[in-house]
Amino acid sequence: xxxxxxxxxxxxxxxxxxxxxxxxxxxxxxxxxxxxxxxxxxxxxxxxxxxxxxxxxxxxxxx
Length: 63
Description:
This protein is α+β, with helices and mostly antiparallel strands. The protein contains three helices and three strands; from the N terminus they run βααββα. 43% of the residues lie in helices and 16% in strands.
């Protein structure tokens, strides 16, 4: 794999990466809340898109 290429995660792997269940991952995808690549019936996720999703949903603590 080149330095320019990112690993693609499948639906189950992406759900595990985010620490959520498969069904929740499906709901996120169907609502188009996360970027993905679709190859026929398969959804693939770049690690950078998974990290962006986590950052987007980060809630800062109240002091």
